[in-house]
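quick one, two chains, predict together pls
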Amino acid sequence: MKKSTFIGTVAAATLAAGFAAAGTLDEVKAKGFLQCGVSTGLAGFSNADANGEWNGFDVAFCRAVAAAVLGDSTAVKFTPTTGKTRFTALASGEIDILARNTTWTFSRDVDLKFSFVGVNYYDGQGFMVPKALGVSSAKDLDTATVCIQTGTTTELNLADFFRSNNISYEPVPIETNAEAQAQYLAGACDVYTTDASGLAATRATFENPGDHIVLPEIISKEPLGPLVRHGDDQWADIARWTLNALITAEELGITSANIKDAAMSAGDNPEINRLLGTEGNLGEMLGLSADWAANAVAAGGNYGEIFERHIGEKTAIGIARGLNAQWTNGGLLYSPPFR
Amino acid sequence: MSNISYVRTEMLQEKAPPVTQTGIVKWVRENLFSSVSNSVLTLLALWLLYTLLSHVLPWVFQSSWSANSLTECRSAIAAAYGEGTHGACWAVIRERFFQLIYGFYPPELYWRPNLAFILMLVALAPVLFDKLPRKMLWFSAVYPFLCFWLLWGGSIWLPLSIVAGFVLGGFAFKLIGAQFGNLFATIGAFLVPILWWMFAASPVASGIHSAIPLGLEAVESAKFGGFLLSILIGITGIVLSLPIGILLALGRQSDLLIVKAICVGFIEFIRGVPLITLLFVASVLLNYFLPPGTNFDLILRVVIMVTLFASAYMAEVIRGGLAALPKGQYEGADSLGLDFWQSTRLIIMPQALKISIPSIVSTFIGLFKDTTLVSIIGLFDPIGLSTNIRADSAWNGIIWELYGFIAIVFFIFCFSMSRYSMYLENKLKTGH
């Protein structure tokens, strides 16, 4: 606990909150670490291991931002947030950035006053059913009972889907993925619906994964991305271009293995040189050091490496790149140029 | 020889009672098969028990303790007990045991929470058992500050300067009391420490600290978790809610209008909102009100909210005890010439508290179990940790083992509390 908790109370009572907030970048530099909001636990995206070290796809993005800003990928503190506390934690300034598999929607961007800095994972809502149910399409699910996490976009998508197809369903509201898993396996619901990545992760943990199928329909677009508060464009730029740097690094073939050599001195490819700061002054424009992007990539590798390490096909979760492949490989990842 | 009828000269040997009237047979007959309907119910219960145990026990014992992931668990169980066996994967408890107990507290510092826990038992002992020397109560009074310092670390001068506030309050009471009388002394005893804490405590503490740096390595609140967090929140809430609850209950019965209005308003407001709402206020809403950059610790906010919540309930429980006392007790106290505080302390409260023991303890137990609600605001109590453990791809899919372990630990705590309350009731029983 910091200096005095009493003082905190007193400050609340006596001080008027009347000073202009400094830029987030300056604040982060002043305190020496990044405060990053992550999920309290979502397989592959964020979890703390037995030693309390945080790992995962979303966590890796936080580390990359910390490396870009402070030059140290360990200079980051994680605030576990739930679906209900995540937005207030960000809006109130408790965290500097939220990387918590949050779907980019119009109302969250505009009405809740956040800036989504890009998409780090293209997801979509799917359905999982037991094979024994004999269903091959989501349109056959009339009168089915559906396990659904409350307070998420999936709940609304589900209602839309069933209404537009004119079929009925009975929702079984649940709070967490683990609860859903237990309910689904116990037969409390015929169908479990959530993001396809979550379905894959859940199915992988079953004793007999072969007894369950994920239906082909993807009923929604779920672009998941990190977000920051409205009104601090410099900070949003840093987060956005750190993400773009990771994506571009993959596109240009820069990996954690060869980043050291590539960042040492200017090479033949001018875009790599600009990205890694051996040429030009992109870092300076952002208010960061010249090697900011090199640090970000060195922290956990490029986008592809992060993907493969935490959720890729070699992991227990086993998600194929699909939509999340580079645009050159038929995916949607397309970073604006570093110029 | 005279004609003497036959008289037995020695006592007959005692005979064993009929087999149906003794020992286990009698007990079974009387308790399990005393009538047709009872017999049916007994058989039914036995069958239920058998079904339950025949499913649960193999699961509990045909288990794996050594695996490193759920998949390994399953194959180990299949190898040991045959294909298709469902067994518990206790290996997750083995791997995450310390995390479930201490959260992310640094392992090399585990001795601090351990020591704090042992000292807590020492500090509670004189409160719970009146046979122990009364001088130990001094340690109990100092303990909260010691515990705070042990758990969070940092400079020792901060807790000491907070203690100094109480000492100053005591001095103020004596000095002002001698000069201006009781009322001013009470006001002074409240005001002086508050002023001290608000303006002087922290600068003085850091001043002394820069001169004589003495302290433990600081541990930030984000590292607290597991049962350490539950016990911390629960015990603080329990210990603080009782005195606050007593004051509120007395205030509610007071004839002073403002005091009464404040107490009634507080109690009714707090009882009118669910605990989870208060927790959301603590975690979410306060952030908006506090100036940006204030570091008002989340755990402390939660502890305050839980304490307020428990105090309101406690106040009503104790009011029940006060209401149950015969009016004669109050009048008797008055007729002895005791003033309000004397009669409350010596006559009313001891009896009212004795009456309310069962309800007080069930409030405590409820409070302790309610601490699991903090997982909803993202704190890593055991329930929150279990979500996090499941997010590890090695353990994803483990549900019953974690919840079972947590349930057993909670049961041990709650059951001990309830046993203690029965002991206390028996000891204080003065009726016939």
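The two ends of chain B are 62 Å apart (CA to CA).
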